[in-house]
Amino acid sequence: MLRVFWSLLHRDLLLAMRRRTDVLTTLFFFVIVVSLFPLGVGTETQTLRILGPGVVWVAALLASMLALERLFAADYEDGTLEQMLLTDQPLPLLVLAKVTAHWLLTGLPLVLIAPLVGMQYRLSDTEIGVMMLALLLGTPVLSLIGAIGAALTLGLRGGGILLSLLILPLYIPVLVYGAGAVEVSAVDLADTRPYLMLLGAFLLSALALAPPASSVALRISIQ
Amino acid sequence: MSGFLSQGGYAGFVWGAYGMVAALLAIEVIGLRRQRRTILKRLGRLMRLRSSGGQE
Amino acid sequence: MSLSWSRFASPAAFYPIAGRLIPVFWVLAAGLILLGLYWGFFETPDRLGGSNPQKEYYRIIFIHVPSAWMSMWLYVVMVGWAAVGLVLNTRLSFMMANAVAPTGAIFTFLALWTGSFWGRPSWGTYWDWDPRLTSELILFFLYIGYIALHSAIDDTRRADRAAGLLAIVGLVMVPVIFWSINCPDPNQCAALHQRSGLGRVDGNILFAMLIMTLGFWAYSFATTFMRLRGIILTREAETAWAQEQVRAELAAQGVRT
Q1: pTM over 0.90
Q2: Centroid of chain to Cα C110
Q3: Sequence-ordered alpha helix ranges (H) in chain A
Q4: A152-179 tens-digit pLDDT
Q5: What would the mean pLDDT of C221-225 be, rounded to a whole number?
């Protein structure tokens, strides 16, 4: 069973590597959105430090959502997805493999580029560290929850906007605690513990509940 | 009576709130009745077409 | 037991039942709402003192709280019917879920509007991100999402089931979302009802509020059943009984078919 997971993960990564631009567009979108805010709000250090955590997280939500359309789209179009539904491999496992590949390509880069963004917003090293950790815990949750939305909106016209409308409310808890973690780290590092534990709890729950929900959604979308 | 209407000077807020509630609920009901008329008309027309035109 | 219930589980069987019940609920709704409004305006004090003094504008509570309660209750009802439909595969359940959604959305909007109009004179601003109103806003998005997803899918069966699953996921997330908005700092959870209402609630106020809630509840039954009958006719249009029904109703209006 583990072999199936790895082979699907490997396949998705390989396919994505052939279209490297897809991966990079998500990353650049994130950077652009993050860079836009100071231009609109002002570049005063105090303002930036207050805005930073929230802006970075909102940008991460938006980038994650934009990338989600591609999670199932390619396989849906060429019929591979139907094949996956017909195999007797557990569908949640296949979904988990695809979501993991998706996160490695669109979520993890955000974690890695966080220091750059943190510098733009004059965040301290501690804050940047906490931000990376929070993003590391939070972005997989975004991918997992987003997969449910992507499965429900498979092949629909207006898919991207509709997907955002459906998924963004569900992202709120991650946003609140992810940004909150960074904010309190400026005051007292020890205070971040409950935030990070909550994010960890979200991750574990999402890992357990989202793949089965996505599987049900896939079966609904593909009769 | 004037006390009732002015609600201690807060008439705008009180009647603004109640007004919207009354308006939306009325619109909902009226909308549903019109919807029903439309559905009946449409289905009636379909049935007339079928019975007079026969199968295509 | 199952035999008698499944008799009503078909759209054809429930259609006339709903039709007979609608006027009953209208009478109930009108009576309760009129009673509630009378009580709220004439049997309660004009101003409230105490720890959280309120002036005449507090009377908005008689439509704000019932709207909010209905918005939440109707969402649960919607999810319930969607779950029944997904598990038992019954057509009528999904029709019920779709019939409830717009009424629920309307009450959510009304809760936001009345809450905002209450907030302006009492807190000084139309919107101040009060946790409960913010949660109500999120609930509004959940309703809109349900309706949007359903209308975006052409195939009725897929639309019903996809929107139903979305609603269920939404319900599971609602406590988490509400909790995160209410308690954004887990180190020191602020009081759950910060800008709350009235402290110790006067008996007459409570009575009026409850009567209004029951009135809204009866109203929701009436509108939901009206919408449901429209949905049933539309979806079952190909069946003989539906065509017979349409013929009869048009004949009663004097229209030839």
Answers
A1: yes
A2: 10
A3: 2-18, 20-41, 45-77, 80-86, 91-106, 108-120, 125-152, 159-185, 192-221
A4: 999 898 878 999 999 999 999 999 999 9
A5: 97
Residue window 144-173, chain A: list those with CB within 8 Å of chain C.
148, 152-153, 156-158, 162, 165-166, 168-170, 172-173
Residue C1's pLDDT is 45
| 8 A C-beta contact, residue A142 and residue A205 | no
Q: What rounded mean pLDDT belongs to chain C?
A: 89
Distance between CA atoms of C103 and C106, rounded to whole angstroms?
A: 5
User: pLDDT tens-digit profile of A204-217?
Assistant: 999 999 999 999 99
The packing angle between helices A125-152 and A192-221, to 10°, is: 20
Chains that touch C (3 or more CB pairs under 8 A): A, B
Count CB neighbours of B3 within 10 A: 9
DSSP C168-186: HHHHHHHHHHHHHHH-S-T
Give dist(CA C169, CA C151) in Å, integer. Answer: 18
Instruction: Give the whole-angstrom CA distance, residue C165 versus residue A148.
Output: 9
Q: What is the CA radius of gyration of chain A?
A: 18
Instruction: Give the closest-approach CA distance of A17 to chain C in angstroms.
Output: 32
pLDDT band at A196 (very low <50, low <70, confident <90, very high): very high
Size of interface A-C (CB pairs under 8 A): 75
Q: At what angle do helices C240-252 and B11-53 cross, to 10 degrees?
A: 110
> Would you state the pLDDT for residue A96?
96
Residue pair C146/C159 in contact by the 8 Å Cβ criterion: no
CA distance C122 to chain B (A): 10
Alpha carbons B26 and C16: distance in angstroms, whole number: 24
Query: Is residue B46 pLDDT above 90, yes or no?
Result: no
Predicted confidence at residue A57, as pLDDT, reads: 96
How far off is chain C from B8, nearest CA to CA, in Å?
6
Type of residue numbered C88: L
Tell me which H or E stretch contains A43.
Answer: none
